[in-house]
Design goal:
The protein has 236 residues and is α/β, with parallel strands linked by helices. The protein contains eight helices and ten strands.
Length: 236
């Protein structure tokens, strides 16, 4: 059965997602609606309830933490599966509690996708055995090499909710503290390192085709998540 997919946000990520769905990269799926803040040359929705009235099976958030706060609860209450990339929104405990209640009432699912953070599965697995140290470094292109932020993952996501969603993504994967560094440099990169009883690992993402943007890998993460929704149950 074809999945009808709605997309919240039609910027760099949303446009690549819609194109990827049209190209078949999300499996048997069809983009049925996109929600935007301002009128667009294409036939997109600016009214949320008109957007929701297209009855998407799955809604992809490709906008901002503010969009999650505004739209996640009614999407879940309508019974649609919601995939989000703005994971920093879930640090709001009251919002998270409302979303959990909406899921229980409607049977819908809220899924936080990895986005630009490589190594999340390995991190979660290592946390079961015990972690000794975890660090996350995010580098952004800039005129001068300098540290913009050093602190915990929670504080990083609080201070930079639009730029450091990757920090928020590490929080549910492990109960340990994650040291985060945001700095300016020549190239954009996201590097996750961990060590513990399992050994140690480092996962580093250096984005292409545009080294100044993470949008492409985030869009691919959403497309892959839609594909996984269509996979048959596995036994074993």
């Amino acid at each position: 059965m074809t999945l009808h997919v709605g997309v919240i946000g039609f910027g760099a990520i949303g446009q690549q997602v819609v194109q990827g769905i049209a190209e078949g990269r999300a499996g048997d799926a069809e983009a049925c609606a996109a929600l935007v803040r301002q009128p667009h040359a294409r036939a997109l929705f600016t009214d949320f309830y008109a957007f929701l009235g297209t009855w998407p099976d799955v809604v992809l958030e490709a906008a901002s933490p503010a969009a999650v706060a505004a739209y996640a609860e009614p999407v879940l209450s309508a019974g649609a599966t919601l995939l989000i990339v703005s994971t920093s929104a879930l640090l709001d405990e009251q919002l998270r509690a409302r979303l959990e209640r909406a899921c229980r009432r409607s049977g819908a699912r809220l899924i936080a996708v990895a986005g630009a953070l490589a190594g999340v599965d390995a991190l979660a697995s290592a946390a079961v055995g015990g972690l000794e140290a975890i660090s996350l470094r995010v580098a952004e292109p800039g005129d001068a090499a300098r540290a913009v932020f050093r602190g915990s993952a929670f504080d990083a996501a609080r201070h930079f909710p639009d730029r450091l969603n990757v920090a928020a993504t590490t929080i549910p994967a492990t109960a340990a503290d994650v040291g985060v560094t945001l700095d300016r440099g020549q190239d954009r990169a996201v590097e996750l390192s961990a060590c513990g009883r399992f050994g140690d690992f480092t996962a580093c993402l250096q984005p292409q085709p545009r080294s100044d943007q993470l949008s492409h890998i985030v869009a691919l993460s959403l497309l892959a998540a839609v594909r996984r929704l269509q996979e048959p149950p596995q036994v074993g």
